[in-house]
Structure to design on (105 residues):
């Protein structure tokens, strides 16, 4: 039984390392894509950003954090940045728009 527990811990650690690597790869690919400055890359950008979000949720789960807790923390961060007058909010209202989106989904 002890050996199975050790194997599960090792498997989880390897999965965490793999997810971290995948996140970094996706971020690097996003930087490369943006550096090219090509037109009509919206689909590729959406794919990379959604992949980073997916991998981040999975990484949190592997580290013992529930999806609901991650989502709740995200909402708290958005609220705090609205209250603190983040520049993105002042300039574009993006945080209020994001908060509305998070409330309705």
């Amino acid at each position: 039984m002890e050996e199975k527990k050790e194997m599960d811990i090792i498997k989880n650690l390897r999965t965490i390392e793999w997810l971290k690597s995948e996140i970094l790869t996706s971020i690097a690919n996003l930087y490369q894509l943006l550096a090219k400055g090509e037109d009509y890359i919206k689909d590729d950008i959406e794919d990379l950003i959604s992949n980073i979000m997916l991998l981040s949720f999975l990484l949190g789960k592997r580290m013992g954090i529930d999806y609901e807790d991650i989502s709740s923390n995200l909402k708290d961060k958005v609220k705090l940045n609205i209250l603190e007058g983040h520049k993105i909010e002042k300039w574009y209202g993006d945080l209020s728009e994001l908060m509305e989106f998070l409330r309705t989904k």
Remarks:
- The chain has two domains: 1-65, 66-105.
- The mean pLDDT is 94.
- The radius of gyration is 18 Å.
- Residues 66-105 form one domain.
